[in-house]
Amino acid sequence: MTFNLTFLDQYAPAIHDLVDQHVPEGVGVTRAAGIQRAAQLEAVRDADVVFTGWCPVDADLIDAAPRLRLVHKLGAGVDKIDVSACRRRSIAVARLAGGNAVPVAEHVVLLMLATLRRLPFVDARTRAGAWMKEEARGVNRQLQGKRVGLVGLGRVGRAVAERLHGFGVELVYHDPVRLDAGEEAELGLVHLELEELLATSDVVSLHVPLLPATRGLIDAAALAGMKPHAVLVNCGRGGLVDEEALDVALRSGRLLGAGLDVFATEPPAGSPLLTLPNTVVTPHLAGATLDNFAAVLERALANARSVLEGRPLPAADAVLDPAGAAVPG
């Protein structure tokens, strides 16, 4: 099968090598020359399929791609894709449900540990010549013995729960769809209402999609209701958290710290959260690992073939699946 495939994101050379290895012969590959608007619009001009990780796909971009039949998110969240505009053109929209769950879950645990130990701050001080062992002992915490609250229990939330079993923690969760008793027992989870989870958890980790109902979920009231000196970890979406209220809670000592991989505006230039010694921040890279990208790419390519051949997408990956999508011309 031949079609034109456009990658919107800017990748490291090693990822370009993987693309060259895994994209089959006959598929024309276009890489956007940059994240600037003109470069993105030019890149999709002849695209049948667009792959995007973090670059937005809005109505103007869709209008600039007359051949477009599929927009595929190389991840789970599609909040940066204008699904309504795709629906008007009968363009399919797909995601990779759980495709990045393992690396994201590992990163969540990493942020928990690094925040409890203030790892970047201690690292910077050590490199600067300070030897702050006893100073750090006065503020550092261990993970063992803590209650960890998971807000949302999709594929990533479950993967986090599985990885925390060896740390000797108590696991609680909140999700609108509760697991049955057998699944809860298997994962070692106890279901709580959100207010109780926030009030009693030493570490709170967010694993819900960004929807109108979840935007600002962790606002000033929610932060005030958290257990004193708790840690907040967010590898979901920045819009889940009121960042101004979080900044106040961290500066006042109300919270012990925060581990943040996502921000309301990315990059978060000028955010006061970047200046705090009790935050650990990373650039929305929880799912970005070299050794997972080949599997991500193969699955997305399989979904592209399904759409272009008029076959349905896998139910887990289908966001919008117009019938009979095919390559034009």
What features would you describe in this structure?
The chain is α/β, with parallel strands linked by helices and 329 residues long. It has helices spanning 13-22, 37-43, 59-63, 83-88, 101-116, 119-127, 133-137, 155-164, 181-187, 194-200, 220-224, 243-251, 290-308, and strands at residues 3-7, 27-31, 49-52, 70-73, 92-94, 147-151, 170-174, 189-191, 203-206, 231-234, 257-260, 279-281, 318-320. Helix 4 links the parallel strand 4 and strand 5 (92-94). The chain is globular. The relative contact order is 0.15.
What's the story with the biggest beta sheet? 7 strands, parallel
Poorly predicted sequence stretches spanning 5 or more consecutive residues: 324-329
Radius of gyration: 21 Å
As a percent range, the share of strand residues is 15-25%
| Shape, principal axes of CA atoms | globular
Please report the total strand number as a whole number: 13
Straight-line N-to-C gap: 13 Å
Integer average pLDDT: 94
- Number of contiguous helices: 13
**H/E topology pattern:** EHEHEHEHEHHHEHEHEHEHEHEEHE
Helical residue percent band: 25-40%
The helix-and-strand class reads alpha/beta
Query: What strand line-up does the widest sheet have?
Result: 8-7-6-9-10-11-12
Q: Quick gist of this model?
A:
This protein is α/β, with parallel strands linked by helices and 329 residues long. It contains 13 helices and 13 strands.
Give a quick set of tags describing it.
329 residues, alpha/beta, 7-stranded parallel sheet, 6-stranded mixed sheet, 13 helices, globular, disordered C terminus
